[in-house]
Amino acid sequence: MSYRFDILTLFPALFDGLRQESLIGKALETQIIALELHNWRRFATDRHSTVDDAPFGGGAGLVLKPDPLVKCLREVVPPGSRKILLSPSGRPFNQKLAHEWSQLSGITLICGRYEGFDQRIESHVDEVISIGDFVLNGGEVAAMAVVEAVARLLPGVIGNAESLTEESFADGLLEYPQYTRPRDFEGQTVPDVLLSGNHAEIAKWRLAQRVARTRAMRPDLPKD
Ligand code: SAM
Question: In 3D, which of 18, 13, 133 has the Cα closest to residue 5?
Answer without folding.
Answer: 18
